[in-house]
Amino acid sequence: MQCIKSLISNIRQYQVSPILYKRVISVAKWKTPIRFYTVQDDDSEIINDLCKGDADLEKRLKILMLEVEVMRQDGRPAPSILRKHHWEHILTLASRNQRSSYLVYLWKTQMAKENEKAKKEARRKEMALKSEQVVEKEFPDDLIYGIQHQTLFLRIRDQSINQFDNYRALQAMMWGQPIVIDCSYEQNMVWREAVNAAKQMTFVFGENRIHKEPFNIHMCNVDLEGHFMKQLRKNIPSLEEPWFPLNIHTKSYLDIFPKQKLVYLTPHCREELTTFDHDTIYIIGCMVDKINTEPLSLARAKRDGLKMAKLPLDRYMEWAPGANKSLNINHMVPILSDLKVSGDWDHALRHVPRRKLMETKIMAMQKKIRSNPLAKEEIFKNFNMIKDNRIQSFRKKRVKSKQSLLYDDDSI
Q1: Which residues contact 153 (CB under 8 A, 6 or more apart)?
Q2: d(Cα 310, Cα 267) in Å, to the nearest integer?
Q3: I need a labelling partner for 229 at 20 to 30 A (CA). Which of 48, 153, 235, 386 fits?
C-alpha cells in the first residue's frame, strides 16, 4: 500500500512540475557520466498525441515514463531522448523484460551514434593538425603531391558514386529483368522480424544497384503503414522521392505481371531450379521466419496457382548438421544476379553464409582440438550422438513416408 501511495505521489509530482531537469550521474558501471534530459513540454505533447483523451491509456503512459525515468536515475542503460514512435512501440510491449530489452537496444544505438560522431570529430582534428604542418621543400618552386596537396587525378566524391549507382538502377528499371519481392508476410512476423526484414531489403537494394547487370526490383503487396515500411523509410530517407530507382506496389504481382511468367522460389517445394531463365519473373518472399517456421511461401504459391522452384543447395553444398536452408533475401538476390550473368552455380552460391556449411564446422573443430587436445574425446562423443539422432530421425521419416509424404504439394 505504501508503494502505491509513493508511486501516485511521484506521478502527481511528474504532472505538476513543468521544469527542465538536467542531471549528470556518474556511475562506476559505465565509467563515464550519463547525461539525460526530461522535458515536460515534449512529454505533454506526446501524451496528447498518443492518448487523445483516453484516461486509462494516459495513466499507463505516465507510469511507463516514470519507469524509464527511474531506470535513468538508477544508472541503468536507457536512452536520453525518446520520440513519439518509441513510446508508441513501448505501449505495445506487455512485460517489463520486453521494455527493458527495447530500451537497452535504443541506448546501444544512441551510444553507437555518439561514438561515431566522436570518431569523426577526432579525425577532423587530426586532419587539421596535419594540414598545419609545414612540408619541407628541396627547392622553393617544388610541387607537393599527396592528400590535401597537388594531385594528378580528379577526386570522385561519394555523392557522384551514389548518383552513378542510381543511374545503373534506373537503366535496369527500363531494360532489366524484373524480380518480385513479396512483402505480404508482415502479418506473420513480430516487430523485431519486420525490422530485420527491412534491413535485409536495404542490403538488397544496395547490392543490386552496384551489380554488373542489376534486376528491376518490384516490391509487391506492400503495407505502406506497416512496421516494415516505417523502418525502410528510416534506412533509406529518399525512398519515396519520385526519382528513386525502386518500384513499390500495394497491388499483388498477379495484377502487374502475366501469371504464366511467374515462378515462386520457396525452399519447401520439390522442383529444383536447374538453369536460369531470362524470360521468367522470379518471386522471393520477404520474410524472417525465426519464430514462425511454417511453409507460408509454399502455401502462398499454391493458393495463387504459380509454378514453384527451389535452389539446388544440396547438390552443390554440404550443409552442417541442424543448419537452416532458408536463405535471406539479401542472399537470394545476389545469387540470382550472379547466376544470370555467369550461369555457374558454384560461383553464384558463394553468397551462402559460410556458417551454414560443414566445412566451417570442421575448421572450427580442428582449431578447438589444436588449442585443447583434451577436448578431442568430447567432440567425437558429440559427433556420435548427432549421427545416432540422424539415423533415428531418418528411420522415423521412412516409416511415416509410407503413410503420407512430409511435404506433399497436393495436401497443402
Answers
A1: none
A2: 5
A3: 48
